[in-house]
Specification:
With 435 residues, the chain is mainly beta. Helix content is 4%, strand content 42%. A hairpin with an 8-residue loop joins strand 23 and strand 24.
């Protein structure tokens, strides 16, 4: 049920919206199972649920005005579809800036032929938080929509200046957040993962935030990345992982003896989220403590490759299309191919393909800010044998070329997963009919 709720942020009570808890309860099922979920909307607003990363039937994708009517306040809607690809996914609304409240949760699709060996698994959901503390997401969107004028005249209360990251190519984010959370808990009241030394753990890391990339590391340990956005990759050992909004990474780690900080450092924002991994005695870690893993090897998607059995089948490209990411922070006029998405006219500026085509998509970032680009209903592959993904970081002034098969007809959203960029216009529709 989606309803007004509260979250306890280490003694600060924030009024928000949620699915009972923040995050919502994890949905766990097996590949080939049917997911049947009734969304009871008890919010004072329309809402929907998007099943992020799942290649599902188009009318279940949860984008009002494109794939379904919005679920009105007081109404119910049944999502009912078969899940195919195993992996780590999540769910959230696709209405306005609702994602920047407490409306999100994990979807874990188990692999009946799982090849990984591990003793336990932990879902690690990352978030940036301001709702009910310094304002609401709607207030943030309104302020940002005015562009840099509010910052220049001193009236801004939510804009962030000076968030810089070399990994992200410069400007790291727009929004000032008072809290960064792991599994709904701030660093002053951290989640604790208990275990025993020598145990092999699968981490399923999900970035559910709206304006923040995180650099994730476990003090005293190296991580072996095994999956990105639900799909296996050739395993890579690393000290830390850079994860943009909407991305998911699975990693294996063999635990040492003691108490260790699991840190999600808000990239470029000089703040951390903290959880504690405890396998023995030791002082309680604190979020302010710097751990060397954060500044050693930091894995990005560009360092990953797909195993042969995961790669797209080799075939010629039938169609090439470009999604140019356009706009600026100054005017806050974000768009795709120079067009700002209009929910009242969603097909304006749409990208067209034909069913059965192999499509090469060039995502060209013409802006001075990074964007996490997300394609609904499909998984693409980074060209050159890269990872299979549905959400990818595209750096400022750079381009990313991916390929996918048009094998799931419908009207599919493609957008920046910074919720404020998407709501300001950086979204389009990829559409095609069953032939």
């Amino acid at each position: 049920m989606a309803a007004p709720s509260q979250i306890d942020l280490a003694g600060t009570t924030a009024n928000t919206w949620g699915y009972g808890t923040v995050p919502g309860s994890t949905i766990r099922l097996g590949a080939g199972d049917t997911l049947r979920a009734t969304l009871k909307n008890r919010l004072p607003s329309d809402t929907s649920v998007h099943w992020h990363g799942l290649a599902l039937r188009n009318d279940m994708d949860g984008v009002p005005g494109t794939t379904q009517d919005p679920i009105a306040s007081g109404s119910d809607f049944v999502y009912d579809f078969v899940v195919g690809q195993p992996g780590t996914y999540w769910f959230h609304p696709h209405v306005g800036s609702q994602l920047d409240r407490g409306l999100y949760g994990a979807v874990i699709v188990e692999d009946p032929h799982e090849s990984l060996s591990y003793d336990d698994e932990w879902v690690v959901m990352l978030d940036d938080w301001l709702d009910g503390v310094t304002g609401t997401p709607d207030e943030v969107l309104k302020e940002l929509s005015g562009g840099m004028g509010g910052m220049m005249d001193g009236s801004s209360s939510h804009m962030m200046m000076g968030a810089r990251s070399d990994l992200l190519g410069g400007d790291a984010g727009d929004v000032a957040y008072p809290y960064f959370l792991i599994n709904g808990r701030p660093s002053a009241d951290p989640e604790t993962f208990p275990s025993t030394p020598g145990k092999r753990i699968r981490l399923r890391i999900i970035n559910a935030s709206s304006d923040t990339a995180f650099r994730v590391a476990l003090g005293g340990h190296r991580l072996t990345v095994t999956h990105s956005d639900g799909y296996p990759v050739n395993p890579v050992d690393t000290d830390a992982i850079l994860i943009g909004m909407g991305e998911r990474y699975d990693a294996l780690v063999t635990l040492g003896d003691g108490a260790f900080p699991l840190i999600a450092s808000a990239e470029g924002k000089s703040a951390n989220a903290l959880a504690i991994v405890r396998t023995g005695v030791g002082a309680k870690p604190v979020s302010a403590a710097s751990i060397p893993e954060l500044t050693r090897t930091v894995l990005t998607a560009a360092m990953l490759s797909s195993p042969s059995d995961v790669s797209l089948a080799k075939r010629s490209v039938d169609r090439e299309i470009t999604a140019a990411l356009t706009g600026s922070m100054m005017a806050y006029d974000w768009g795709i191919n120079g067009h700002r998405f209009d929910p009242n006219n969603p097909m304006a500026g749409a990208l067209g393909v034909l069913q059965g085509e192999r499509v090469r998509l060039r995502i060209e970032n013409t802006t001075t800010m990074w964007h996490p680009f997300h394609l609904h209903g499909h998984t693409y592959q980074h060209v050159g044998g890269g990872p299979r993904k549905d959400t990818s970081i595209v750096l400022p002034g750079k381009s990313l070329t991916v390929e996918f098969d048009a094998d799931n007809p419908g009207l599919w959203a493609a957008h920046c997963h910074n919720i404020y960029h998407a709501e300001s216009g950086m979204m389009t529709i990829l559409g095609y009919l069953a032939s």
